[in-house]
Amino acid sequence: MNHLGFWMNKVRRNKMPKVTDEPSKEEEKEESRETRVVEGQSEAAGDLHTPSPQRRPLQSSPPKFVSVEELMETAKGVTNMALAHEIVVNRAFQVKLSEPAEGSLEKRVKDIMHKAFWDSLEAQLNEDPPSYDHSIILVGEIKETLLSFLLPSQGRLQKQIEEALDLSLIQQQAGNGALDIRRIAQFIIGMMEALCAPCRDEDVRKLHDISETVPLLKAVFSVLDEMKIDMANFAVSSIRPHLLEQSVQYERKTFQEFLAKQPNALDFTEKWLQDTAVALRSGEIGPSVGAESGSSPLLTVHNHAYLRLLKWDHNSVPFPETLLMDQLRFQEMQLDLERLSVVASVLLIVYNCAGEAIAGLPGLMERLKKTIVVLLSEMHMSSFNADEAFATISEKLCCMLGECLSEHAFLPFTTERQSALKGQIVAVRSPDNTIRKLIDSRIQTYLLTVLERTPHRSPIAVPGGLAPIGKELDDVSVRFGHLVNFNKQVYYPFYQRILQNILKDDTVMTSV
Predict the structure, then answer these.
(1) Which residues does 329 contact at the CB level (< 8 Å), separation at least 6?
(2) Could you count the other beta carbons within 10 Å of the beta carbon of residue 448?
(3) CA angle 265, 285, 317 (to 5 degrees)
(4) Which site from 110, 277, 337, 338 is most exposed, i.e. has the minimal number of CB atoms within 10 Å?
(5) For the purposes of burial, counting CB atoms within 10 Å of the CB of 29, is it exposed (0-12), middle (13-18) or buried (19 or more)?
């Protein structure tokens, strides 16, 4: 379920319609004035807060009446916040044409309706004399679209369009049999050439090659749809710097409004932070609170909480509400890090086993790494066969090492040594493998350092064993740091209040 669906589902489940077998007169009067929904207590707790032996039950909020209008307004606010967040965080964000799925009922209905329309238009144009009623309507739509592309300063172009596509004049020409539809089409194409993005030049140029009126109009509308998307994406790229300046306050304000209507909207966030504090205190993860030099207990808990999101069980554990809009991004980073951990573990085993014989050989590391990456490309797909993949990796790497040793006049591996190497490589498929856990721990340490680093400090040294994946790890760390820092800026007041309450609890922390 996406972030918007999750939030609104949470609202709907906690605001179910109030139903009674025999409503009182007062209730009937109230229902006649406006439709109301009442916030439930047990249903939301049952659906969203499934108890477990280690989980402290979350307290439900008191019943609260909320109108349907308020509910719809909340949905609108969350939708706008999600869109603004996506534009700011995802620099590759683009508006795309929405097309129904191939073979779907919607697609078939759309095709039938379009064919009927264009067939009707062609029949009108083939009449004697031709009827231009529908054609003039289409020209009017094209005119409005062209005008929508103009900036306020482009008054000259606006005047040209208004004069050349004067519908009343075109209607008179059609009535007098003097309408030159081809002349109008050439003006439209010329204006499209002047207004389109460079990537659309070739599409517009091809319009000159279409001689039939109906196919030409169909092609014109198709290209105009693409130009609308180009204009929308240009607008997105233009507003992104300005939106970035305002987005922190905007998202915080919108979430605060959502929280006012839905008091339990931070339940999973509170549990996420509380569980992190407990895990730190018990030594289950990281150092004890306050052990890191220069880090406050509050910051320590917060940073480790973000690291836990890279080890999240997305199928069974609810994601914190304050991070729902970035859940897919965190999940992608989690999968990337799992794959990088395996790659680094295998390479560490290979180089430790082969020793100085292959140390420093140019290009070998990249060839070995490329082979592993290719064979692990489907690592997180349901069809992935781990046993087969790791067996293949071990065979290929041993073969490549043998060829490399022979090429550089080194003695080949003995059969026993090859078997030992293959066994160690195959063992990496288990998350509990010692080498894999070591590499994973170093990756976590590196990412924690990224979160704790101040902007003007020197670059972070890559821990031992991670050099082969240094470039990829740096890419993930940049994405991770960007998301975390932005999230902290937006939700800092909420996090601070929650963490202060957690750190005051002596049953969780002994000191601040």
Answers:
(1) 89, 479, 483
(2) 19
(3) 35
(4) 110
(5) exposed
Alpha-carbon 224 to chain mean position: 28
Count of helix runs (H) and strand runs (E) in the chain = 19, 3
475-498: pLDDT as tens digits: 999 999 999 999 999 999 999 999
Is residue 295 within 8 Å of residue 448, measured between CB atoms?
no
| Dist. CA 101–CA 404, nearest whole Å | 51
Cross-strand partners of 36: 67
Each residue of 124-182: pLDDT tens digit?
888 888 888 888 999 999 999 999 999 888 999 999 999 999 999 999 998 888 888 88
Extract the tokens encoding 163.
Answer: 């004069």
Which residue's structure tokens are 């590196």? 446
Cα–Cα–Cα angle for 24, 25, 27, nearest 5°?
65
CA atoms within 13 Å, Cβ hemisphere of 72? 5
Strands (E), 301-444: none
CA distances from 308 to 144, 220, 286, 302 (A): 52, 52, 11, 10
Of the candidates 221, 134, 216, the residue with the CA atom closest to the CA atom of residue 182? 216
Q: Specify the pTM.
A: 0.67
Cite the DSSP H helix spans in 151-212. 155-164, 167-175, 181-195, 201-206
